[in-house]
Amino acid sequence: MDIRRMKLALTVDLMNLSLPQNPLLMAQKVMDRFRSEVGKFKGLFLTEKSAINYSFERQMAALQFERCTLSLELVTDIKSQVQYIQGFELKPI
């Protein structure tokens, strides 16, 4: 499994993401390109949610695949419901 190549693909696609798109779906689509390495998608799990201030909240989500987990740190604008990925971590199982 080439973690470095997957992280690069995620980073490039996140930088080119237009705002109306859902960043979780985009991350899943990027990982689907590496299906032979990461395995089948098993599910999405929200692991943590907390308020940053009255306008924004922070969420931690995990995209679980057969051979790895992609953890995403999301910031959501409560008013517009637009989500931004602040960071991610890719861990092999």
Model description:
The radius of gyration is 13 Å and the shape is globular. It is 29% helix and 45% strand. It has three helices and four strands. The chain has helices at 3-15, 23-32, 35-38, and strands at residues 41-51, 56-65, 68-77, 82-92. Helix 1 runs antiparallel to helix 2. It has a four-stranded antiparallel beta sheet with strand order 1-2-3-4. It is an alpha+beta fold and 93 residues long.
Summary tags:
93 residues, alpha+beta, four-stranded antiparallel β-sheet, 29% helix, 45% strand
Helix fraction bin: 25-40%
pLDDT under 50 segments (min length 5)? Answer: none
Q: Strands of the biggest beta sheet: in what spatial order? A: 1-2-3-4
Query: Which structural class is indicated by helix and strand composition?
Result: alpha+beta
Strand content: over 45%
Radius of gyration: 13 Å
User: Could you give the order of the helices and strands?
Assistant: HHHEEEE
Shape: globular
Largest sheet, if any?
4 strands, antiparallel
Instruction: Provide the residue-averaged pLDDT.
Output: 92
